[in-house]
Each structure stands twice: as structure tokens, then as C-alpha cells.
Amino acid sequence: MTSEISLSTVPAHTRHGSNIGQPLTRRDGVLKVTGAATYAADNHPEGMLFAVMATSSIARGRVVALDVDAAKAHPGVVDVMTPAHKPELAMDPDAKTNPFMFRLDLLQNDLVRYAHQPIAVVVARSLEAATEGAALLAPRYEEEPARVGLDADESFEPAAIGIGSPARIERGDVEAALARAEHRLEATYETPAQYHNAMEPHAIVAAWDGDTLSIDTPSQGLAMAQGRLAGLFGIAPENIHIRSPFLGGGFGSKGLVSGPQVLGIMAAKLVGRPVKLVLRRDQMYGPVGHRPPTRQTLRLGFDGEGKLSALHHHAKTVSSTFDDFFEPAADISHTLYAAPAILTSHEAVRADIGTPLFMRAPGEATGSIALEGAIDEAAFACGMDPLAFRLKNYAEVEPISGKPFSSKALRECYRQGAERFGWSRRTIEPRKMRDENGYLVGWGMGTATFPALMFQAEARAVLRRDGSGVMETGAHDMGQGAWTALAQIAADALGLDLDRTEFRAGTSDLPDAGIAGGSAHTATAGMAIHNAGADVVAKLAALATGDERSPLFGAGNAGVVAREGRLHRRDDESRSEGYGDILARAGLAQIEGKGSAAPDPSVQETYAMHAHGAVFAEVKVDPDLGQVRATRLVGAFAAGRVINPRMVRSQFYGGMIWGISFALHEHAVMDRRSGRILNADLAEYHIPVNADVPSLDALMIEEHDPHVNALGIKGVGEIGITGSAGAVANAVWHATGVRVRHFPIGLDDLLVPAAA
Amino acid sequence: MTFSISLTVNGVRRDVELDNPRVTLLDLLRERLQLTGTKKGCDRGQCGACTVLVDGRRINSCLALALSHDGADIRTIEGVAEGGHLHPVQEAFIAHDALQCGFCTPGQIMSAIGLIQEGQTDGDPERVREGMSGNLCRCSAYAGITEAVLDAQKKLAEAGGTDAGRRDAA
Amino acid sequence: MNDFDYIRPATVPEAVAAAAAPGAAYLAAGTNLLDLMKGGVARPGRLVDVTRLPGLDAVEWLEDGGVRIGAMVRNADLAHDPRFAASFPAVAEALLSGASGQLRNAASVGGNLLQRTRCAYFADLDSACNKRVPGSGCDARAGENRLHAVLGWSDACIATHPSDFCVPLVALDAVVEIEGRGGRREVPLAELHRLPGDAPEKDTALEPGDLIVAVRLPAGAAAFAGHARYIKLRERTSYAFAVVSAAAMLRLEGGVIAEARLTLGGVAAKPWRDAWAEQALAGARPDEEAFRRAAELALAGARPSGDNAFKIELARRLVVRALALAASGTPERVPALPGSPFSSLPELHHDV
Question: Which of A265, A336, A376, A526 has the most beta carbons within 10 angstroms of its beta carbon?
């Protein structure tokens, strides 16, 4: 089975010659600006019914009654799926066989573990009927007191944080170093619960045909979703076909298949018809993950010249009562500043919430705003410029491990970013800068960092007799530009122009491209593509160089180079032959190659691999009213090789705006008694609007990394939020002299007495 | 009881039978007329993804009762490009990378076309940012969106029309 | 959303008759009502669509110099009506600071007046709310109430009225024309919205079947055009409800305040106009001292209803700012960021 997904391109998008590094416009741009790009909820197979979830309004207890009769009596309602009436699963949704498998709420019983937990699904002939049917269920509960927030319960040290990282890591003796330090600083920062809120709500259109399952659903990890669903439904993975050509944003919330998506499949099985289930916006505040709140205490020891001697970063966080995800917030302190003694430690409580999950820069984002705040505080305590302080503590090797960096152009990020921003004109003292209108002006900075990760992936390459090529890998485009950037890598790997390269992605029948997460997708899928291209070109070269009728005869594989659809002898570029001619002579319609990618353990053992950046922020604050506007951000990022600068710039901008949002806007407000989120919407859960973002600049700092992978790619999806959030918060302090250590910073935090 | 309404959608008259009065314009477009380019992001007038032009004005179709718009002229994202030619706003969105995941993009583009027709921004970036603030973009393509609207507005003005100046996509 | 009867009357009397039935509601644009219906807060058994009623969609200038705004005039059309915006610039600024371009294109004048509170506990069907279910209690009192009322609230309800538009309208002595079962009557806008007392379920003085057909501004209202502002503090730069807002208008004669108007938004269940503050300003020089005194008077009766004491101080400072901005003169055009304290950052107007 081949992919149904194809892209129309307009001529302006293609370019001849080397494609990597070119600022091509999005190859899926025309589809997206015309409404022709098909997202999961846009599908409408023949005979489809609509499913709407009913979700719990309590955070803890059990459902004791559902008025199924009332729902079924509503015209158009076909069936109501409840714990008592549902298809059997082949696997307990509460079973957990690996750390990437999270427990799901699939109506397995009447227990309620968090607000907005699915408790029933109504299927109807119209969306309106299904929606009203769900309301008519009018659940009754036995409610128990909800455990809410960072002080919900006794805390404990998790066995592991993030994915399998130790909760506590120490290098040197932090307590001794703190005791000896000339200056000590302790500061506690709190970050709130945040929700991914991709613009596209999770959606699924599911259709069963016997034991085979066909679904449209957004996925950042097709192969993992396929495996998870195969386990749940007891069918072979190859019997599940998932289409996810476009995700309407993911940010981590679509990395793993979520409970509601599975419920859509169950509903389709129950009624024996295709079913569409789309989450309401409020239903995204529970079963599809979130960024948990943290309370982080930073303890720094340093001398009068600003040299750090000790750094303890402790983070308390919250997980659900029934599963383990612990935000690794303190681990950001492993890599950034060269303290000889470093301790990172974590503790957690359990509360009646949906299980938190990976949300754009999980751990790094929360940890960064606290660390960058504390560093800013320490710099001021020394009377130093925050940039000078950071340079004083520049890590030449990774502080926690002592490993050399595979590459690190952070110094250049600091230099160019500061220059573009005009940082040298900043005052050390806060509340000293004003603009011509009398607004307080504050300048702050933060260091950005994100690990350069790689996962495992495979790709398949084909060269055809007509001179065209195909590259296949089940990659995911959630907006980062995979359709474009991976196609650019594919074209270069095949030695073809982009318009002769067909790139297929976004479906589960293609080779596994690995998960689109950890900012690792371009490196991972890109390397598989690179290797698949090399493989097929090598096979083609073997055909040519072993054939005495070819001008390339005798050149040997290493002796040819693929370019623009031809193989050229390295030692004599005038001798070349087109792909089609080689295949025609060999009597082949096409030739196929395969490639895979995986992290190299020996390189991981030897090097610390991270992308870096520096973000400089200007805010203006109304001196009387406390209203803040982030008027200007400049980021400078070194993230290895840039495949497509146009798309990379957009990723940096997006991350930087998430940083503004972290510092100034978004947070979930939970009722302390009920455990319900009161702003489970987009009106009161404030993500930035266009007017919040007047001016952005992102510099791409050249960086060649020979170690991370053969393409030198590090990843750009998440680094933008790190550094930026702290830079904005530090700028607010610099504008006002008020150090706010909880986020988002509100105007009530800045109502200093007018006399101050 | 069924209700009959008639709409002009992207220049085509559509006679619609509704079995039920509660259908919103958004759900009518998406689930009954299969015009799925218009997106549902919040269904509560809080995100702008469902923006369409009704009688030339941009509105949130999720908070519009279809019945109440009987006889209206509706333009959706599917009706913006004509004869293989992208609208200048569409072109500018691609050129300025004013989109990432693309889910909010139809609403952004309809809103931008509406904003330009409203004629209140005078090419001022701050007025464009304010005027486009009813369209959330979680990927945060705002810088590109502002650039694209300014660029398209300028090109439309140069072409001498508000909305007439379509240009070849290439 | 529940099922309902849909009626599209041809005349105002037909509409009034149809809407007087129990469970009936008027549907104008629906930007608030459909939202409430989707959330289950409103479950009307009958919708009476007033969007096609004749004679409700005009802005008429009256012979005495006043203006009559039809209830179905859309918010955006009113704000962009050049004569209206020039005569009542603070009203235009308030309109344009509310919601989004799309919502303003749809939302009607009458509907804006009748939007319901944005209190999260009102919207949450599983919370106690006396406004939604009389006698059920108020979960906001001991809940998340950072943004709730600081004036005019009661133990029964601490919700605020969300409208921006109503704030300057109340300042300008707007009058609401109502068609009801007993014929036409007029109610000053300041008396349309009710403070909660012990009956917070009743937002307004309207009776079943009452239809707002127009809002009138008196002739004298335009006298403030030269010194009129609406300033709105919110948690993002645009597309957010007010934390606190203020409409301030002055009529200056010979460097002295001849007459002042001051109304606060976001602080109470209705736009909060303070006669004492206005009287204290009359005859004073437009300086900071006078503005501070007015601010003290305007907030004299304020008390926190929860974790919202900051709103009192914030409102005081906002009064001072709004009066100062009004004194410095109405901008020629509604600022790029209407209502924002950042409405004049010239360097951000450059081409990007």
C-alpha cells in the first residue's frame, strides 16, 4: 500500500542544485492557504457517525449514575458507550510495560481520577445530537475531596524523572561549597500548570473493516501509536493504517496516542460504523497531558567577582495519582553554568489531575525560567552585568559530566545577540530606563539550551528509470516544516532536484520515522533519509561502474558523485551518466535502497551534545498600572546545520513567543476545592495574541558539528522557549525593580507603591 | 420539523434542509456541506479559526446560527483562490511563512481579507496586529502574519482594488 | 446545546409576544447567547430571532443633537461611523477595545448591553452560583476571585459585568428604549443593570418579553468629545476582558473642569459611575491632585470580595490615568491599540 498523501507545489518552491540550507517556502503552503490540507477532523467517510465524550466534572470519586435513557431518547442518538457497554479490549488500559506507555482512561471502570476524565461516549447521527446526548447523561457522583496542587499530599523522591533520568545527581560537594562561598543566594520560583492547546483539538475518524482499522488522527509518533493500538485491540500492527499528513500543532500532546483517540476507535467498533470523535476545547484540559506546576529552589554560591562555586537546583512537581511523569525541571542546571559543585534534585506529590506529559521543552522550559532568574539575581548581587556574569561562568565542558561539547557556539550567540539588541547600553540598576512616553523600560537576558537528541528511524529510497526519485519515511509535520525540510534532505540524498523528488510521509504504512519530539525529528528522520539515499545511489553506482558500456566504468563506488540526476566521476566530472540511462541499460524500472538512523552510543559517551542560544528581551511597563508589553526580543541560536532557514526562523519565533507566554500570560487556574480548571478555554487561558508580539528577531549562528550526526543537525523546535521566558521575566525586574518569582507575572505583581 | 434555508457559498447557491435548528454556520459548512477548510478550534468565539466572510464581513462562524443567516452570502477559504490563482493574501502568507501547522491559517486568511476590506489599518503594523488579534496561533507565526497582511494590503492597493487584484500564484 | 423552537417574527410586537413565553430568549447575533447555550448555562426553549426586525439597524441623529442607535447596529459599524466616533470618541474606543474584529462585526448594540458575566463559576454548571441557580450559593466567594467585584457586590454574588461599551455609555447618560408587553418605555442605562443584592439571578430591569430596540445618547453627550478616553487594563494586549477599565470625560472651560464624567468597568455587576467624584472634579483645575481626589472618592466604597484588593488600588490609579489622558485631549483617531495603556508607542508603528 502506498501513501495517499501528495503535495502540490508551485514552481517558486523548487530549486535546482543543493537543497539543504535553502530558504524554500513551505511545500505544503498552497494546501494550507487554500483550506485543502486535510486534518483528521476534516474526514467524512460514508456512513460516518459523530461521537462526543461526556467528561467528569469531579476530580476524584466515582460515577454512580448516568441517565443513558435520556441520552438515547434524544432524537439522533444511536448509542451510548459506558463502562457497562463497550467493546472489550485486549489489554488493560492501566497496564504499563514501558516508560513510554501511559495509562489511559477508556471507561474501564466507574472511577474518576481527574476532572475532564472521559466517563461516557455518545454516538449520534449528527454532531448536534451527540453533543446534547452527552449533556443529557447528567452524571451523578460519589465525590471525594480533591487533592490539588504542589502541596496536595506528602512528597516523595521519584524513582526516575522525565524518561528514566535519576531524580538526584550531584557532582562535587554542594553543601560544602555553599558553606565556603563568599556569597550565597537562595530563591524559590513557582511555575504554573500549562496546557498545550494546539489549535487543532485532538480528533479521530475511525473505521473498522473486520480486524483491520483505518484511522485519521494527528500523531507525532505513528509507529508508536500503531503499536499501542495493536496492543489495546489485539490486532496486528500492520492491520492498522493511520493517516496523519498534517497535525494542527502538537507540542508534545500528540506524541502518544491519548485516551480520547482510543475511545473514538472503540465507539466505531461498538456501533459498527465509521465514527468521528473530536475533543471540545475544555476536554483538552485533562486527558491529553499538560505541563505540571513546579516549585523550584535555587541555591547559588559565588565569589565577589561573580564566579559560581556551587549550584543546587531543586524542583518539586506534581504527577497524577495513577501514573508517573515527573517534570525534570532541575536538569537544565547540568549543562549551562560552570559551577564546580552541582546538585540537581527532584521531589513530587500526587494530585487528582490528568497525567502530565511532555510539553514543548519539558523540564527545560520550567527549569530555565527559574535558573535564568536566579542567575540574574546573582549577577545583580555582584553588581555585574548579567551577560558578563554568564560569560564569567561559561562552561567550556559540560559541568555535570566533564565531557567536552560536540560543538558550542554560545559565546558567539551572546556576542551577536547582544550586539543586535544593543545590550551594552543597559543599566545595571533596575528601574532606571524610561522611554520618551514615560514607560519603564527593562532589558533582560537568558541563555537557551536544549539537548541534541536522536531516535531511531528508517527510510526507503527509490530511483526510477524516468529520472525521478521517491523517498519514503513516516515523518510527521506538525508545523515545523517536515514536508519541506525532509524533502530537501531527500533531494540531496538522491542527488536530484527537488521537483524530481517525490517525498512521502505522514502515514503509518511507511518506514518508521521515529517520534517527532525532543527536537530530534529532522536529525533522526533526516539521517535515515540521508542513509537511504546513499544506499540507493551506491547501488546505482555499482550498476554503472561495473558496466563497461558506462562512461563511469571502473570508477568504483567511492569514485562517483550524485548530482542533479546524474552520476559523475569524481576524478573527471565531464564523465557522467544520467540515472535513467543507467537503469535503462540494466533493464530496471527502478532501484531501491534503505537507510536507518540511530544515536551513536560511542559519540554519546564521549561528547555532551546540545544546541545553545542567547535571548535578549525588552519589556515596557506602565509605571503606575503595571501593564507589561514585551516590545522586542532578539534571539541568537547555534543549533548545528540549518536545513531551511525560513522554517527554522519560524521555529525560533514560535519558541520565543512561548517564552513570552510563559513569563507573562498562560496558566491554568484550578479551583482548590473541586480540582476543576476554571479557565479550560481560550478566552481566559491566555495565550499571546498578535498584538502581544510587536518585534522579534532570530539570528542563526553558524555552527558545524562533526559529531552529532553526519548532517550536523541539532534541532530547533524547543530551544526557543528556553532562555526567552527568563529573559522576559528578567526584563520585567529590570524595568520595575520588582523580582516576581511566580509566573505568569501579572499586573497586580507590579503595583509597587507609586512613591517607589 | 425541518427548516429550509438558502445560502450563497463561494458564489454557488446552496439550498439546505436542516433537520434541527441548532446547527451553527460552522458545523453546517464542515459537517453538512463538506467545506472543511474552515476550522473549529474552540467552538466558542475565542480563537478565530472558524472565521468566514458573511456578506463581506469577517465573523466567527461558530457563534452564528445557520438559520439566522438564511439568504446570506458566505465566503470561505475554499472560495478565495480562483481559477488556479492564489489571492494576494494567500501568496503573502506563503512568502512570509505566516503559518506553521496551518490549522489556524484559513481563519487567519479570511480575517486578513476582512481586515483589509474594513480599511482601518492604513498600513500601520500596530493596527494590523490589533486587527488580527482575534485569530490565535499557537505555533505563534504572528510576525509572519503581520508582515503578510501588510504586504498583501500594499499589493492590493497598488492593484487598485480592495479584493480584485488577484495575481498568478507563480 | 438543547433543541428549541426557532421563530423569526416580522414585527416588533410579534417578537415581544413570542418572547414573553416562559423559556424564550431573543437571538440577535448570538455571540454571547450561543456561547452560553453551548456551555449549557442557557437552555432556552424558544429563540426569537430579531436580526431581521425592521427599523433596528440605523444610527439616527436627532433634531436636538442627540443620537439614537438601533439595537441591531453592529458594534463595529457604530465604532467606525465617522460622525458617531467624532462625537463620542470614548464610546468608539471602548467598542474597539472589546472582543475581536470578528466578534465586533457580528455583535449587536442591544446584545452587548445584555451580555452576561464572565465569572467562571457562573459558566461552570457544577459550581454553586446564585446567578445561575438562585439559592445555590456562590462558589466564587471562597474560590478563585482575583478578578471579581470590589464595588456593589453582595454575599450572594461577586460577579462583574463584562461590557466595555456600556461603561462610557453610562457616563454619557445613555437611555435604553424598550418595547415590552405594556408598550414602549425608557430606562436610563445606569438603571438597566442591577446590583446583585439578594437576587443576583436578575441581571437587569427587563421583564419577560422586553426587547431593547435602541440606545439614545442625549444632546449634551457630544460636549465631551474633545476630552474623552476609555482605558482598559487586561492580561494580554488585546482580546481579553477588562481587569479594570475607566471611561473619563471632561468639559473644560477656561482651563477649569466645567463638567466631568467618570465610570468604571470590571469592578461591579454594572458600570460604576460615581457622582461624588464627578462633582468633586467640577470646578477644579485638571491636575493630578484633582484626579487623585476623584479617584479616592470613586473607590471610597470599594472593598475586596476575595483575593482582589489590588483591583481597588489599580482602579484608583486607572482613574487618575484616564482623567489625565482625557485632560490632555482626545486623539484625532482611535489609537492603534484601543483602550490600551500602550496605545501610543510610536516606534512600534514602523514597517516590519
Answer: A526
pLDDT at A521 over 50: yes
What range defines the domain where residue B38 resides?
Answer: 3-79
The span from the CA of C336 to the CA of C349, in Å, is: 9
Chain A residue closest to B36 (CA)? A42
pLDDT of residue A297: 98
Domain end, chosen from B37, B62, B79, is at: B79
C-alpha A237/C-alpha A233 separation (Å) is 10
**In a domain? residue B169:** no
The gap between the terminal CA atoms of chain A, to the nearest Å, is 71
- The interface predicted TM-score (ipTM) is 0.97
pLDDT digits (tens, 9 = 90+) for C277-321: 999 999 999 999 999 999 999 999 999 999 999 999 999 999 999
Q: How many domains does chain B have?
A: 2
Q: Mean pLDDT over residues C203-213, rounded?
A: 97
Closest-CA distance, C118 to chain B, in angstroms, reads 13
> pLDDT confidence of A752, banded at 50, 70, 90?
confident
Say whether C117 sits in a helix, a strand or coil.
Answer: coil
Q: Do C348 and B126 touch (CB under 8 A)?
A: yes
Instruction: Enter the C-alpha cell of residue A78.
Output: 444511536
Q: How confident is the model at residue A559 (pLDDT cuts 50, 70, 90)?
A: confident
Residue at B138 is within a domain: yes
pLDDT at A320 over 70: yes
**Taking CB atoms and an 8 Å cutoff, what residues of chain A touch C40?**
135
B49 and B97 together in one domain: no
- Are the beta carbons of C34 and B115 separated by less than 8 Å? no
Q: C interface mutation test: which of B57, B60, B149 has the most C CBs within 10 A?
A: B60
What fold characterizes domain A12-37+458-598? Aldehyde Oxidoreductase; domain 4 (3.30.365)
CATH classification code of A367-453+605-750: 3.30.365.10
Grid look-up 540521508 returns A530
Q: Where does chain C show beta strands of DSSP type E?
A: 5-7, 24-27, 46-49, 59-61, 67-70, 175-180, 183-188, 211-217, 228-233, 244-253, 256-265, 272-273
Taking the CA of residue A700 and the nearest CA in chain C, the distance in Å comes to 19
Contact A695 C352 (CB under 8 A): yes
- Please write the tens of the pLDDT for every residue from A144-201: 999 999 999 999 999 999 999 999 999 999 999 999 999 999 999 999 999 999 999 9
Picking from C262, C229, C192, C243, the residue whose alpha carbon sits closest to that of residue C94 is: C229
Cα–Cα distance measured from residue A469 to residue A460, given in angstroms and rounded to the nearest whole number: 11
Q: Could you tell me the CA-to-CA distances from A443 to A388, A422, A738 in Å, in that order?
A: 14, 10, 13
Residues A132, C238: C-beta atoms closer than 8 Å:
no
Nearest CA to B105 out of B76, B127, B129, B83 is that of: B76
| Residues of C engaging A, defined by a Cβ cutoff of 8 Å | 1-3, 40, 118, 120-121, 124-127, 139, 142-144, 146, 233-241, 243, 310-311, 313-314, 317-318, 320-321, 337, 340-342, 344-345, 348, 352
Mutate to test the interface with B, among C1, C33, C34, C333 (most CBs of B within 10 A): C34
Q: Is residue B20 part of a domain?
A: yes
CA of C76 vs chain B CAs: smallest distance (Å): 10
When the pLDDT of each residue in chain A is averaged and rounded to a whole number, the result is: 96
- Residue B63's pLDDT is 98
What are the structural domains of chain C? Answer: 5-52 (3.30.43.10), 222-339 (3.30.390.50)
User: Is A144 considered catalytic here?
Assistant: no
CATH number at residue B153: 1.10.150.120
Number of inter-chain CB pairs under 8 A, A vs B: 195
This prediction has a pTM of 0.97
For residue C211, what are the β-bridge partners?
A: C179
Give per-residue pLDDT as tens, C241-257: 999 999 999 999 999 99
Percentage above 90 pLDDT, chain C: 97
CATH number of A43-144+202-278: 3.90.1170.50
Here the CATH number for the domain that contains residue B48 is 3.10.20.30
